[in-house]
Specification:
The protein is 40% helix and 19% strand. A 7-stranded mixed beta sheet has the order 15-16-17-13-12-18-19, sandwiched between helices. The chain has a 6-stranded mixed beta sheet with strand order 9-8-7-10-11-20, with helices on both faces. β3 and β4 form a beta hairpin. It is an alpha/beta fold. α2 runs parallel beside α9, α3 packs antiparallel against α6 and α11 packs across α12. The protein has 2 domains: 245 residues, 3-Layer(aba) Sandwich (Aldehyde Dehydrogenase, Chain A, domain 1); 187 residues, Aldehyde Dehydrogenase, Chain A, domain 2, CATH 3.40.309.10.
């Protein structure tokens, strides 16, 4: 059912192409949702403009649905409704919020195939990569259901006077969180930030990307089925240029995942209002293959690191630095594994890579590769668009000889394109990996874990995976995830991922003594007594 693809003139062979669909999954078939299905999905959508926008599948450009569009006035209405609902939700015991998240966990696993089907139709990604999305949502829901009390429940702190000063620490919800979600992981990234926000007692108003509204709306429907009260999760639809600003102008906290350029605009808007934001932005992520790496494992990991979701993953690798001692062996295995990948517009398991999301993304990837080739880069495999497979297919591509004058050297491609570089010295490899302004994710392959962990401390990246591409940190929900430098601010996951949605409030109760002179004591004597107490507390080991 598969055949070797035609080789571009400048490549030694391309990836394998998936053969014809069975009739049930005909790539030319339309998957337009019935009006009743759209009505159910859009129940939490606030949209009164009378306009609709068509959602089409990147698999075959077939129409999927027409989504009602929101206005700035709709955004204002959504926030007003969410604020009213949030007051009662903030008073809801943590145990009840957690129970809702555990019900969501079960629903996501029970409805996994339905979720995956919709993700594949709407994003075009391979089924095995769509599977990652409900998996990660379930992990996140269970994690915050089990740990919310530890992270944002009331706790005690040490008072200044032992036994006489009691300090309670409260984590007060921000209010209404605005989420602007991207298209590349349309179900996962529409939910995981909001799950933490809900657990902390907030309401959510979310604007999914216009290209992938259906997956996000299915997430909203599952929250409703899990028992989330009305108006705590409201969805608005429309271009960011039209309603994104309205969200930033009203939210008590903003979560954004997307480009660095847009992130800067959002950060400025939040700064003007003195509200917080977390931004997961671009990356030009490096993978280091050290001289003692297991070459077969490194090559397998590099394929996943570079070509998962057709490279449309913020933590995917676009630069691979390989030690001289193993360079040739690694390249041989990496190229061979890449040539063995299957491409196809299919819903079936077993396909390795689907299309890019849109013509704009295809144009951007094509421009990066064409620019590199024109300036002297060598294509080891791939390098061509494949319109014979579908409208937005581009072959997984490995480049050698990429130099700083090429666009793909320092700019994020966000597609199935990776560049290879030799290194002689590990310190030089670290310096080159840190070159540029990004700092999101990195990977190191080495059989010496202690040495790899030592090197990791010198990499400017918010997450570093050792002997893994990105899944080790991404799936470890207790570990924070986010970027350094121009890859963003703030963290999702872990304690940081939920506490960002709260204001920390300290409440101190003082008994018997006051912090002022008393019993006729002068100010000078009071100062001497306090100094003596400070010295005494140091001697007895007080913090």
């Amino acid at each position: 059912m598969s055949a070797q693809s035609p080789s571009p003139d400048n490549t030694p062979g391309g990836p394998v192409v998936e053969g014809p669909f069975d009739p049930e999954h005909d790539p030319t078939a339309s998957y337009a949702l019935e009006p009743d299905d759209v009505a159910v999905l859009t129940r939490r959508l606030v949209a009164t403009s009378g306009r609709t926008a068509e959602v089409r599948s990147p698999l075959n450009d077939a129409p999927l649905a027409h989504i009602p569009q929101s206005t700035a006035a709709d955004v204002e209405t959504a926030f007003a409704r969410a604020r009213k609902a949030q007051v009662a939700w903030a008073r809801t015991p943590l145990e009840e919020r957690s129970a809702m998240l555990l019900r969501l966990h079960d629903l996501v696993l029970d409805r996994q195939q339905e979720i995956i089907d919709l993700i594949v139709w709407e994003s075009g990604k391979a089924r095995k990569h769509a599977f990652d999305e409900p998996l990660h949502v379930a992990l996140t829901a269970r994690y915050y259901a089990r740990t919310a009390k530890r992270h944002v429940g009331n706790s005690r702190r040490i008072g200044i006077v032992p036994g006489l000063t009691r300090v309670d620490l409260n984590h007060v919800p921000k209010g209404v969180v605005g989420i602007i979600a991207p298209w590349n992981y349309p179900f996962n990234l529409a939910l995981i930030d909001g799950i933490a926000a809900l657990a902390a007692g907030n309401a959510v108003v979310i604007k999914p990307d216009s290209q992938t509204m259906l997956s996000a709306l299915l997430g909203a429907r599952l929250l409703e089925e899990a028992g989330l009260p009305s108006d705590l999760w409201l969805v608005v639809a429309g271009p960011g240029s039209e309603i994104g600003t309205a969200i930033v102008e009203r939210a008590d906290y903003v979560c954004f995942t997307g480009s660095t350029a847009t992130g800067r605009i959002i950060a400025k808007g939040c700064a003007d209002r003195l509200v917080g934001c977390s931004l997961e932005l671009g990356g030009k992520n490096p993978l280091l293959v050290l001289r003692d790496a297991d070459i077969e494992k490194a090559a397998e990991g590099a394929v996943r690191a570079s070509f998962s979701n057709s490279g449309q993953l913020c933590v995917s690798m676009e630069r691979i630095f390989v030690a001289d001692q193993v360079y040739d062996r690694f390249v041989d295995r990496f190229v061979a594994r890449t040539q063995a990948l299957t491409l196809g517009a299919t819903h079936d398991w077993g396909n390795d890579m689907g299309p890019l999301i849109s013509q704009a993304q295809l144009d951007a990837v094509t421009a990066h590769v064409d620019d590199a080739v024109a300036k002297g880069a060598r294509v080891l495999v791939g390098g061509r668009a494949r319109p014979d497979l579908g409208p937005y297919f581009f072959e997984p591509t490995i480049l050698e000889g990429v130099s700083p004058d090429m666009a793909c050297f320092g700019k994020e491609t966000f597609g199935p394109v990776v560049s290879l570089y030799r290194f002689h010295d590990e310190a030089d490899a670290v310096a080159r990996a840190n070159d540029g302004q990004y700092g999101l994710n990195a990977s190191i392959y080495s059989q010496d874990g202690a040495r790899a962990r030592s090197i990791a401390r010198h990499l400017k990246a918010g997450t570093v995976n050792i002997n893994e591409a990105f899944a080790a940190t991404f799936a470890s929900i207790d570990a924070p995830m986010g970027g350094m430098r121009e890859s963003g601010t703030g963290r999702r996951q872990g304690a940081e991922g939920i506490r960002r949605f709260t204001e920390t409030q300290a409440v101190a109760t003082q008994r018997l003594v006051r912090f002022a002179p008393h019993y006729g004591m002068s100010d000078e004597t009071y100062a001497k007594v306090m100094n003596a107490n400070l010295r005494l507390m140091k001697k007895v080991g007080r913090a």
